[in-house]
Amino acid sequence: MDRHHYETFDKFGNETFIIHLDNGRGFGKHSHDELSILVPLSQCCRVRKSTHLRLQLLAKEEYQLSRLMEESLLRDRLHPVLIQPHLEAMDRRLRLVLQVLAVCVEKEGYSNVVEVDDHHRAREARGGRDTATHRNPGHR
């Protein structure tokens, strides 16, 4: 059952109310990667440059997505929110997304897949210089 499923009990007639039960599956099963969710990406083969760069950054050892998420969740009152296998699944799934994008780039060319967005368009207009200060990849 997913979280959109609900049941009613005939015994109470029309005097019922909704109870939302969260099964905690927001991150899915850590041992199963649902590859069908990547189909739209593989079909359209388009991504913003800022998104592509962020995904590549989060795949690097020093900015590893699972480590940043774990550090962020340490401050949560419900810690641990995610168990280690779920954190590892995040890194594995990130690699799958990057693999799909790599196939797109190989098939269609970088400029046809990675779209320069406003931030990078302005940066290129300044000759590649970034006037903003460097920020932690976890900050917006």
Compact summary:
With 140 residues, the chain is mainly alpha-helical. It has a domain at 39-125.
What characteristic shape results from the CA principal axes? elongated
Low-confidence stretches: none
Q: What's the total count of β strands?
A: 2
H-E order: HEHHHHEH
Number of helices: 6
Estimate the helix proportion, in percent: 40-55%
Q: Radius of gyration in whole Å, from Cα?
A: 21 Å
- Overall pLDDT score: 83
Biggest sheet details: 2 strands, parallel
Intertermini distance: 35 Å
User: SS-based structural class?
Assistant: mainly alpha
- Main β-sheet, spatial strand arrangement: 1-2
GO biological process, one term: enamel mineralization
Keywords: ATP-binding, Disulfide bond, Glycoprotein, Golgi apparatus, Manganese, Metal-binding, Nucleotide-binding
Region (Disordered): 121-140
Family: Belongs to the FAM20 family.
Describe this structure in words.
Helix content is 45%, strand content 3%. The radius of gyration is 21 Å and the shape is elongated. It has a two-stranded parallel sheet. Helix 3 (65-73) packs antiparallel against helix 4. The protein has a domain at 39-125. With 140 residues, it is an all-alpha fold.
What keyword list fits this structure?
protein serine/threonine kinase activity, metal ion binding, FAM20_C, FAM20 C-terminal domain-containing protein, two-stranded parallel sheet, mainly alpha
What is the element layout, followed by pairings?
Layout: H1 39-44, E1 47-48, H2 49-59, H3 65-73, H4 84-108, H5 110-113, E2 114-115, H6 118-125
Parallel strand pairs: 1-2
GO molecular function: ATP binding; metal ion binding; protein serine/threonine kinase activity
Domain FAM20 C-terminal: 1-114
Binding site for ATP: 7, 22
